Amino acid sequence: MRFTKIFLFLTLSLAVGFLGCTTEKKSEAPKPEQVTKNLVPPKAEVKGQNFLLELSELQIVMLMDKASKEITETPSLKGRVKITNQSMDNLEIQGITLEYLDQAGQPIPFTSGEKISKATIVLQAIKPGETTEGSIDATIPRKAVKEKALGKIEVNLVYVPTLLKRERLSFSQKVE
Predict the structure, then answer these.
(1) Which domains does the chain show, CATH number per domain?
(2) Given a cut of 80, is residue 162 above it in pLDDT?
(3) Which residues, including other chains, have CB under 8 Å from residue 48's CB and lie 6 or more apart?
């Protein structure tokens, strides 16, 4: 009986000791939340020498720390693009690059550590009057969003004019 009391006392002491020592709370790192901001205006139409470019559904998507409201990753610019060939030639579109400018027209640089993806590859030949559509998914500097420094987006459409022209010729022949 004496050993039972000692054994019971030791078991309870150990249990209280283990449970009492685990007062350490596990805290999870704050989960970032995805925030979407619309650009104003959300749609733009720009006419160039050979193309009509329509951008729509323009949004900035970013991950923000809930507590500090800091942007945790490089924000993304998302939207739709519609390209119409207004020239008299076939044109082979290679891609679209984006430059972000502040109110004074100066480029907004990416800071070190930011992911840079300012181009969308299209790779499509379009005939005169034809239209092609696609999506835009590029990064935008944190500074452009955080400090609301964005004043303008410059779109560079990279294309190759089709140098090959085709001409159809026919001549009469017969088999004897």
Answers:
(1) 32-161 (2.60.40)
(2) no
(3) 157
